[in-house]
Amino acid sequence: MSLLTEANFGASLPIDGYGPGFFRVAGEVTRGSIWVSGEEMGSWGGLDDRAPLLALAGKLDVLFIGTGEEIAHLPKDLVSELEAEGLMCEGMATPSAARTYNVLLSEGRRVGCALIAMPEKPDASETPE
Predict the structure, then answer these.
(1) Which of 11, 32, 34, 78 stands the most exposed, by the fewest C-beta atoms within 10 Å?
(2) Model pTM score
(3) Which residues are within 8 A (CB) of 75 and not within 5 positions of it... i.e. 6 or more apart?
(4) Whether the Cβ atoms of residue 123 and residue 47 lie closer than 8 Å to each other
(5) What pLDDT does residue 3 have?
């Protein structure tokens, strides 16, 4: 008897994993930084690449922004620009942003995330399959 109920993401795109320079989203490996929202995803150029984030306004209640290995303050003008469009954002380290996105997505919430990829290390032994 299992005590845990497996999360049901429906047609939404969960983040299955990540590693140096890549993310695994709904079973597919993508290299580089990404944004994910419900059934959509795309590449993301980082904190200065605002167009894909602004395009999510009206579709989400909250956007989690993963700042890489460690938490970093989001640029105030980015936060102001997103909030002016009605999009609440929360900055956190990329691993935390991915986990938080998955939890709220499994609850059926209108969430998205923009994730800066973890740095690639020359001796990284983990590679995506």
Answers:
(1) 11
(2) 0.87
(3) 47
(4) no
(5) 60
Residues in a beta bridge with 41: 36
Is the Cβ–Cβ distance between 66 and 98 less than 8 Å? yes
Distance of alpha carbon 80 from alpha carbon 70, whole angstroms: 22
Q: Whole-angstrom Cα distance, residue 46 to residue 10?
A: 28
Pairing mode of beta strands 62-66, 34-37? unpaired
Q: Does residue 28 come out as left (phi exceeding 0), alpha (psi in the -120 to 50 range) or beta? A: beta
- Rounded to whole angstroms, the Cα distance separating 25 from 13 reads 6
Q: Taking residues 13-21, report their average pLDDT.
A: 96
Q: Which two tokens stand for residue 52?
A: 């894909």
Measuring CA to CA, which residue among 82, 30, 23 is closest to residue 53?
Answer: 82
Domain boundaries of the chain, sorted by first residue: 15-115
Tell me: domain 15-115, CATH 3.40.1230.10, correct?
yes
Quick one: which of 101, 85, 96 has its CA closest to 38? 101
At residue 124, φ and ψ (nearest 5 deg) are: -65, 125
Distance CA 73, CA 124 (A): 27
